[in-house]
Every structure is written in structure tokens, then in C-alpha cells.
Amino acid sequence: MGMRDFARAHHVAFFDAMATELPDDYASQEVNHLTLGYFAVGGLSLLRELDRVNKDEIAKWVLSFQVHPEAHGDEDNGLFYGFCGSGSTKFPLPNVKEPCHSGSHLASTYSALAILKIVGYDLANIDSKALLSSMKKLQQPDGSFMPIHIGAETDLRFVYCAAAICSMLGDWTGMDKLKAKEYILNCQSYDGGFGMVPDSESHGGGTFCAVAALHLMGFLQEDLASNLRDSASIDIRMLLEWCLQRQVTDGGFQGRRNKPSDTCYAFWQGWWCTEDHWRLPFD
């Protein structure tokens, strides 16, 4: 296969199969069904082959993973009323006829809403009030987010998920944007990139999450690369230089210094190429 050839038909067949039924090799990823579904449906959408799947059935499948309050006012009981990653998280509860989800996850909620938007579902039909009010309780004093209500690691991944969720729902009551911005700024390293947490090594995924979240929250000017004016948010000059240095000799992108290229970073780093207002001179 030549360098410029792309096996489009093979990719379409793969995503189509993954959107229908996952093979046994994915058994260990049971709790990540929504994330895997997002990859498959998103891939078909990018290849303009979304008509291969039943959009209504996909929306129905996704909606089956949302956690709902049992009674009015329950959104204040400490649980997160977003989406679970799998049906395996349903458990029988006292005085409830049908098994219920015991909680939900921020990344699964992001994947769920993204899938619903891709298939054209009207997100106005989502119980966003309970989702957002309970999600706000996941935000920590330093502005970061934990992904589940019982506590877990906090880093830029979940700040981005929260910002994307609010953006997709068109409602920012689910987070304190200023506190989130402060946390993001504390994650920018000396070399211009962003680590996943404050005082950590710059990372391609962390940099994507940081800049994308700031953009979604409205803290970045869209003409920063063309004007290179001082930003009210981040050191743009150093950031652009760091991103340019992540392309290596084989044409791919590395996630950190002195690492080999990896296809995932073609997304995390290469997305800058698709944004006209950044105009980065990648090869």
C-alpha cells in the first residue's frame, strides 16, 4: 500500500462491525461500552457512512444507560445522574422493581452525549437538570473534576469532559468555569505544553484537553495564532512551539519529549491543523 492510500472500505467495514457487535476480545472492556460505541459511531460519521446504522436504535441504546433520580430532589443526594458505561452496572436496589444503575461516570456521559449528537438526537429531551446539578458536585476546590461520585483521580481529562458536556447541552450551570480555568492554567508546564495535573510533564492528551476546554468555555481568542497577542489565559507562543516540536521524522506525532510517534497523537496534536485560526505549519 502506498503512503497516500487509505483502505477506506476496510475501515468502514470495521466500524460497522464494531457498532453492531463487539468480538470476545473486548470482554474486558465491558464497562466502557459507551466509549467504544462513540469510537465506532464517530468513525462511521467521519467516513460519511452513518446510514449503515439504525440511528433510532443507537439513541435508544445510549439512553438506557442514563441514571435517573428515584424521586424529586434526589439529585442532591450525592450521586451523579449522568450515564454509565455499560448495562453491567445495573444492580437490584431495595423497594425497586427493576434493577437500577448505581452511579455514572463523567467520561461515559461525554461519550453518550457525543453519540446522541452524532445520530441527530435532540438533547433537549435529556434530563439535563439532574445531570448538571449533580455533575457540579464532582468539581473539586481546585477546579478539577473527579469522574464518579465516590471519588477517584482528578485531572484534565475530566475537566474537558465536563466542559464538553456543558457545551453540548448548552448549559454551563454544571461547573464553575473560573475555577476550572484556574486549574487548567496551573497545569501548563515550563515548556508551554500541559501536563495532566499541575507540576507534571507536558503531554499531548493533556494539552488537547486543556486548550479544548478553554476554547469551549470561551477563554481563548480565535485569532491568537495570527496575531500572537498576549493571551489572558495561556502562554500561546510557548504552546505553539511545543506542539510543533511534537512532530517527529516519520511524520507522526509523539505525546511527550523523547517518545516514539503514536497514531493517537495524530489526533491529540494534529487537531491543531484543522483549526484555521491557529495556522500551524505542520508537515
From TrEMBL:
Keyword Signal applies: no
Keyword Zinc: yes
Keywords: Metal-binding, Prenyltransferase, Repeat, Transferase, Zinc
SUPFAM superfamilies assigned: Terpenoid cyclases/Protein prenyltransferases
Cofactors: Zn(2+)
GO cellular component: CAAX-protein geranylgeranyltransferase complex
Molecular function terms from GO: CAAX-protein geranylgeranyltransferase activity; metal ion binding
Domain Prenyltransferase alpha-alpha toroid: 6-270
Origin superkingdom: Eukaryota
A Pfam family it matches: Prenyltrans
InterPro entries reported in the protein's UniProt record: PGGT1B-like, Prenyltrans, Terpenoid_cyclase/PrenylTrfase
PANTHER family, per the entry: GERANYLGERANYL TRANSFERASE TYPE BETA SUBUNIT, GERANYLGERANYL TRANSFERASE TYPE-1 SUBUNIT BETA
Family: Belongs to the protein prenyltransferase subunit beta family.
Name of this chain's protein: Prenyltransferase alpha-alpha toroid domain-containing protein
UniProt organism field: Setaria viridis (Green bristlegrass)
Organism ancestry: Eukaryota, Viridiplantae, Streptophyta, Embryophyta, Tracheophyta
